[in-house]
Structures are given as structure tokens and as C-alpha cells.
Amino acid sequence: MEGCVLAVMRQEEIYGYELSARLSEYGLNFVSEGSIYPVLLRLQKENLIVGKLKESPNGPPRKYYRLTEEGHRALDGFRREWTELKTAVDRILQLGEDGR
Amino acid sequence: MNQETRRMTVEDMAALNNERRLQLNEENRKYYEEMLVYLRMSPVEQRKVEELLLEMLDHLLIAQREGRTAQDVFGDDPESYCKEVIQTLGRQRLFHFPRFAFIFSTVLYVGFLSDALFRLTVYPLLNHFYGVPVPEGFKADWFVMAALGPLWIEGMMFFMRKSTFKGMGAKIGWFLLLPVISVGGFLLWQYIFKDAVPMLPIPAWMSLAIGAALWSIHRLVFKGVFKHVDIF
Predict the structure, then answer these.
(1) What keywords are annotated for this sequence in UniProt (chain B) (predicted)?
(2) Does domain A2-99 have CATH number 1.10.10.60?
(3) Which residues of B touch A1 (CB under 8 A)?
(4) Sheet with A59-67: strands ordered across
(5) Span B96-128, pLDDT tens digits
(6) Mean pLDDT over residues A73-89, rounded?
């Protein structure tokens, strides 16, 4: 989940509600929408993202998040690991199909 | 698009929260306010708590407009949810020096000022009508109370936290426990140390002067020089 949050933030600065909506648009539904907040707190603690409260002309002040340098690096790492894992799992599943 | 403006203070955020919370329907407001009390009464940095509370409120208001409830958004177990949040935010140490100094000095100036007030107005009247003797000094147990103040605040926060997410009966029970313990402790203290606590031989006007001086220093330090330091 952390990796997906980082990936969405790479594209744009985003606030909590928007982020959860975007993730569910992509088909990623969590136990509850609210569970993104502990994740956001964790990512901030690890210095992978930063959040800033900003006032907006057509709405209440909102906390917008973006990736830090470290966040970019973590995302690259996640992408690599995921690709490797995906290839391995695909291969194993393929084996099952062939063996049938 | 979004312009950055001055940094909002904790008070600004709390005020905005009060204003926006009015838009919640009753069911969502009840659910949200339990979380609010729990998080505000937790030993974590208040700025982070207020920021998070605003985010959660914003999320809930949008969800409410779309017909979803707080339970849909934050799940069936708000207490566990809050505990997870607190754990992630990182608990503050029990002894946080700015908070200790703030509470210690507050209790102390209140102690000196009320001692002066009582000895200059209340006791003379009691003495006049009922012959009650006017104390001749400043009771040193104010220092003990000042030192215990931070612990008491900590206790109050603990009991307030315990009273959340409960039925009415348990809520009131937890809520009353601290006053009962405090009054009991105070009486016990009086009973045991009645004559052991020294009386500082200072006249009432000096109590007044010391109280006023402490108050000015307290204001100067916490509202002036160290205004930017997060006390709670």
C-alpha cells in the first residue's frame, strides 16, 4: 500500500480524500478509507513524504502531500522489488498452468 | 492555484475545526467527537493532532455529502484506529520540560496570589466575625502541588481518554474518578502532614508581590520569549 501511495504522489501534490478516491479508482479498496491516514503519518515519519497545510481560494485549508528526495528513491526501490516479485509469481503461476 | 499562506497555529486549527464540525450530522458528529477527545487527550504533539483532526474532518464531510457514514470511513473500531494513529505519531515522554515548567509556574503564581487574596480579604472577615486566626505565612505545600501539577494533568488526560468510546454510565464513572482520587489524596495529605509542612514566614503583601512577579515572568517567558515552543 505504501508503494501505491508514493506512486500516486509522484504524479501530483494531493490531499487525503483525493488520495483515497484516486486509489479506489484504480481498484485498490482498503479495509476502510480512513486507513490511509496512519499510512500517511508513517510515510511522513520516515521522511518519504511531506505534508503542508495550504489555504485554497475555493475551499477549506487542506494538507497537501508530495514526495521527498528519499520518497522518490523509495518508490524506485519499490518498483524494482515489485517487478521482480511479479515476474517470479507469474513464472510460478505459468508453471501451474503448463503442468495441468 | 493554491497559495501558501502563513502557518496556521494550533488555536487557528482548533477554531476552524469547531466551525466546520457544525456541518456534520448527529451520528457522524458523535463518532467524530469521540475520536477528537481521545486524540486531543493523548500525549502526542498537539500540532500534529490538530492537523490530522482537520484532515479527518474534511474527509468525513466529503463522505457525508456522498451519503457515507463515519463508520464507513473509519471502520467499526474507532478506539483501535486512534491507538494506531497515536502509536504512529509517537508518544511524548512523560517528562516534557516546557510543559512541566509551564504548569509548575502556573500553580505557583496562582498559589501566591490566592494566598495573598485569602489573607488580605477572606481571613480578616472570618477573623472579625468568627474569630478564625489569620495564618501568618505561606504554606509550603503549594510547592508540592506545583510539582505534582504535571502529573495531575497527565492523569486527567488519561481518565478523559478512558471515558471515550464508552456508554454513558462508564463515561461518567471514568470522568469522576480523578476528582475523587484528587480530593481523597488531598485530604489524606492534610491528615498525615498537617503539622509537618513548614509555613514560610512572609507577610501577605509579599505573597502578593511574589505572585505578581511570578505571573509577569510566566507571561514574559511563555507568551513572549518562548512563544514558538510547543508546550503541550
Answers:
(1) Membrane, Transmembrane, Transmembrane helix
(2) no
(3) none
(4) A14-15, A59-67, A49-56
(5) 788 889 999 999 999 999 999 999 999 999 999
(6) 94
Residues from chain A that touch B51, judged by Cβ atoms under 8 A, are 51, 53, 63
**Integer angstrom CA distances of residue B46 from A100, B51, B79, B142:** 60, 9, 19, 28
Q: Which of A19, A28, A8 is nearest to A78 (CA)?
A: A8
**CA-based max dimension of chain B:** 74
By CB atoms closer than 10 A (0-12, 13-18, 19+), residue A81 is exposed
Domain count, chain B: 2
| CA–CA min distance B215, chain A (Å) | 34
Q: How far, in Å, CA of A78 to CA of A86, rounded? A: 12
- What range does the domain containing B124 cover? 97-225
Alpha carbon A87 to its chain's center:
21
Is the Cβ of B54 closer than 8 Å to some Cβ of chain A?
A: yes
Any B CB within 8 A of A16 CB = yes
ipTM of the complex: 0.86
Interface touch B51/A63, C-beta < 8 Å: yes
Contacts of A56 in chain B (CB under 8 A): 1-3
Whether residues A54 and B62 touch (CB distance < 8 A) is answered with: no
Measured distance CA(B143)–CA(B109) in Å, rounded = 10
Residue B55 has its nearest CB partner, among A16, A35, A56, at A16
pLDDT averaged over every residue in chain B: 89
In this structure, are B117 and B205 located in the same domain? yes
- Is the CB of B5 less than 8 angstroms away from the CB of A55? yes
Q: pLDDT at residue B173 above 60?
A: yes
Residue indicated by cell numbers 491516514: A37
Distance, CA of A43 to CA of A45 (rounded, Å): 5
Q: Which of B53, B71, B89 is the last residue of a domain?
A: B89
pLDDT tens readout for residues B61-82: 999 999 999 999 999 999 999 9
Distance CA B105, CA B107 (A): 6
